[in-house]
Predict the structure.
Amino acid sequence: MKLDFTTLDVFTTTRYNGNPLAVIKVPAVERSNLTQEQKQKVAQEFNLSEIVFLHQPAEGGSYNDVTIDIFTSYAEVPFAGHPTIGSSHFLLNELDKDTEAVITKAGRIPISKDPTTGQVQAVVPQTFHIHKVTYESSLAATPAETTSIVKGMSFIFSRLPDLETLKKATENLNVVKHGTNGTYEAGDLDEGWQVGLVGTMYFVDQGVDEFGRKQYRTRMWASREDPGTGSASSALGCYLATLEPKDAGTGPFRYAFTQGVEMGRRNDIAVEVIKDDAGGIQTVLLSGSAVKVMEGSLEI
């Protein structure tokens, strides 16, 4: 079996910045022949933060809703932000399809393209939850809270005082607690949520940008440092929105996250959050750019 792939750098318009992603096209006739084990081995071979298997419709079929499977080097995940934005860019800009949504294990994600900037926007699936467990870090003055954007994608958020301290943030607090396999040790989460990935995102307040968005510099660690994490950024946007004063109403609350600077791979990630009348999270919009880097084929 031979499959075509394209790599993109996501959350950037500059090649060799952003977060790399491989999008592997799976023809409809091969879908049932490609096993979970084979997908995982391909992900290990690419050795990127995530890769995507994009399931093409049958010949003459509709690209209206397109199914994607997202894999890290260790496991399939229900949702991740940079694969969603990268796949959406690939469909809307590279293939020039009129795709309205991508279908992930976390659900249907409506997507669109800004006609002026070309940036892709995705309505993030979310069941945002703040867990009881907190973590201590020698770098932070206050305990780090733990959240999930969806079941299976959880993040510890540690607020740091300045960029000098951010340079020293080089570990996943769940790995510190549980050892080498701590990224996939979810036993400390609330009952019913104890599955999937647990990473740590460090963040530093950087004021407000020219568009009125609250700015933050971030770093995210799972099994290794990730240059640009849309799922963690979406969760951080939700978390920050819960801290907004009640008189700010339901929003929208707009955030601009810059990640990956310490790795030499700057990512610019935009998140917009709307709350419901009860103060819960109603809508999360993740936005970003991408640029094509490589094309090729692989054999199974």
DSSP finds five helices and 18 strands in the chain. The longest strand covers residues 197-208. The mean pLDDT is 96.
